[in-house]
KEOPS complex Pcc1-like subunit
Amino acid sequence: MSRRATIRTAHDDAALVARALSPDNTDEMSTTVETVERDGSEATADDDHAAAIVTRIDRETTSGLQSTVDDYVVNLEVAIDIVEQARTVQRDEPTDTGPVSDTDSDSEHDTTQ
């Protein structure tokens, strides 16, 4: 008989957190991102909806399930910390404005007239 656990957690950037978790998933685990409306029904992603990471774990023994769930929760905490740190650093860095020239435009200093 298999033991099962489903862990559902809501996040602002659930897809990014799920990607950070995926390298640690074992064959007995599956992680998906589900989008749900605030009232709990399923919906598509937009500003009016919340996203949740849903991880399902199947193990043959209770102790194996407990160990995998413990590891997953630690990995989840680390992934959340990394995503939050990345957001903080991103906000502190200027966005790329494309190529910038040190000289004035040709129209302002046209000497061929």
